[in-house]
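ARCHIVE CARD
SHELF: 3
SLOT: left
DATA:
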Amino acid sequence: MSDVHDLITMGRVGVDLYPEQIGVPLAEVRTFAKSLGGSATNVAVAAARLGRRAAVITKVGDDPFGPYVRDALRGFGVDDRFVGTHPSLRTPVVFCEIHPPDHFPLLFYREPQAPDMTLTEAELDLDAIRAARVFWTTGTGLSAEPSRSATLAALAARSGGITVHDLDHRPMFWSDESEAGRYARAALKHATVAVGNQDEVAVAVRTRDPYAASAHLLELGVEIAIVKRGPEGVLARTAGELVEVPPVPVDVVCGLGAGDAFGGALVHGLLSGWPLERTIRLANAAGAHVAARLACADAMPTLEDIEPQEVRT
C-alpha cells in the first residue's frame, strides 16, 4: 500500500513560455521564461507542493523538452513513471501574452497532434488508477482520439475513492465542438466531483447560471459540484449543502495556472476530510497565490504559503 498515490492526474503537458515584458503583444516580446505547464500536470505539481504523493499520466515527444518535463516533475516531487514518449511527435510548447488583470491569450503549438493526445488504453496502468485515492481527468483529454477512449476507460476502471473530472474546455482542441457536451456528460457518469468555470459547466449542462448548473451536475451523478465564478468567487454544492466562498483579493500578475493551483488544493482538502467550505477557501487562496506570480508550476504554493491566508479570509 506504500506505493498507492494520493493523486493521479491524466492529461495535458507542455512547456510554457511566459513573456518577461508585461502588457505587450506577443510579436513585441523580447524574452521569455520557461516553465512546466499543462493543466493535469500543474494539478499534480500543486498537490505535491502541499505534501501529497502525486503522479501524472501523460506523454512527451522524443526531443530535448521530454527530459526537461521529466526532470521538472521529479524536481517538484511528482512521480514521472507514467510519462510516456512518442517517437515522432514534439513535446508541446505554449506561448502566452500577459495583460493583467484578466487577459492572457495563449498560442498553442500542438500540431499535428500533441503526444498527450495519443495516450491509449493499452498504455494505462489501470491497477494504479484504481488504487489512487484521487483520480483526476480533464475535458481536454476527451477532445480527440485515442485519448478520449483512454480517458473514458480509465474513468470506468474506478470503483472507489474520489474521482474528479475537470471540465477544462478548450474550443480550439475540438474538431467538432458540438461533441464536447456529450463526452463531458459521459465522463461525469464516473466522477464523484465536477469542477469548472461557468463557461465550462455550460458545455456539460447547457446553462451558465451557477445555481442551476450545480444542481444539474448533481443530477448527472457527482457528489460535489464546483462552479468557479471569477470575481464572484466559487459556488460548491452537494446534495445537502450549498457553499459560496468569495475570492481572495490579489493584484493579478498572470491568471494562468490559478485554476490548477485551486485543483491541487481542492484535492488536499478532500483527502484531509475537511468541511467543504474550508476546502474551497484553501483552494481559493492557492489560486490567488499563483495569480499574483508569473509562472504556473513554479509558483504553486506550499501549505505554509496559503493556510494562514485561508484562515483569515
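SLOT: right
DATA:
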Amino acid sequence: MRGSIRHRGDERAGSWEYIVDIGTAAAQRCQACGRRFWVERKPNESCPACGGELRETEERRRAIKGGFRTQKECQAAMNKVLTAVEERIYVAPTKVSVKEFLVREWLPAIKGTVRASTYSSYKLHVERHIVPELGTLQLSRLTPAALNAFYGRLLEEGRCHGSGGLSPATVRRVHATVHRAGRDAVRWGRLSLNPASAADPPKGRRERRDLPAWPREQLVAFLAHVADDRLFCLWRLLATTGLRRGEALGLRWEDVDMDRGTIAIRQALVPVDGAVIVCDPKTAKGRRKIALDPTTLAALRAHAARQADEQTHWGEAWSDTGYVFVQEDGRTLVPDRVSKEFQHHIRAAALPRIPLHGLRHTYATLALSSGVNPKIVSARLGHSTVALTLDIYSHVLPQQDQDAADRIAALLDV
C-alpha cells in the first residue's frame, strides 16, 4: 500500500496532487470498448458509453486528488488517506448526488425500520427542503459549512407556502433528518464522516411557554358539559389517565380488564399521509398498564353497554373492529375528527381553548401539583424517563419545592 505526490504545471503556478493505492474494488469492464466502471451503488446493465456487454471484475483502485498549493499540504492530506486505508475506514469518493442517495437509497431502506409517522416526517423534510436545496450536490462534497448555509436559508426563506423562514425548532428537526441520513451513509460505506455531526443547527431560545392546560375547575366544567355526550368515556379517560389521542383510539376491548380496573396500552392509531394506521407505542415505556379510578371504570362499563346496543341496532352492517371507541356503526374513529369534536365542545362550554393534547398536559399538571410521585406520573404518561417528565412540567416544581421546605420546617419547629 503506497502513495506518491507529484507537481503539476509549471514550477511557479502549478499545484501538487497525491496518488494513493486504496486496494481492490468491484468494477465492470465493457467487452466492446474496454472502458471500466466502478460499482458504487449497483452494477450497470450495459455499458453507459457504447451499450456493450459488461463483465464483472475486481481491479486495483487509486485515489487521486490535486489542487494543493504546497508539497507540505499535499503530503499531509495523503498521509490522512493512507491512515484511513490502513485502518479500513477510507471511503472512495462517489459521484452519487444527495438526491440519489436520499430518494433512491436511504428512504426505501429505512421505511420498514421506523414508525410510519417518523418516516413520513423524514420524507417530508427530504422532499420539501433538503432535495430542493442540496439535491444536486455530490454526497461526498456535502460539508458542515454547506449545511450551516442551508440551515441559514431555511431560517430566512424556508417556508414552502407563503413568505418567511422556518422556526429554529423546525430547522432542528430538518437537521435531525440530515444527521440520521449521514449516520446511515457512514454505516453503509457511502461517507467516511457524517458532515451533520460538525454542523451547527440553530439553537434559538427555548423559551418555556405555558403548556395548554386547564386548572381543576375548568376540567370539572368540561366533564360536566360532556356528561351526556356519546364519547363521554373517551373524554374522561383522556382527562384521568393522560393518554395520547392515538393510544386512546387504538384501545381494544381485549386490552381492558374490567375486573382489575386496568387498561393495557399496546398500540396507537395515527394519521399518516391521509390514512389512519396502527403503530406501536411512541416509546419503549409506552407499552404499559394503567389503573382506572372507580368513576372512569363505571363510565367504561356504561360505554360498553351503549356500544352493545348500537351493535344490535346496526346488525349485519356493524363493523366489528374491536376498538373501544368507534363510530356508531363500529367503524374506526378518525383522529382529526375527534380533535375537531373536542374543539366544538370547548366552544359550546365557553372554556379557554386548548388542543386535545392539552388534556394530557392538564392531567400531568394536576397530578404533579397534587403531590403524586413524579415516577408514577411518568409511568402513566408512558414517558421514556422521569427526567423527561420533570423537564416538561418543571413549572409545577417550584410549588412542590416550597411545600417540601414547609413540611421539613414543620418537623423541626416543635
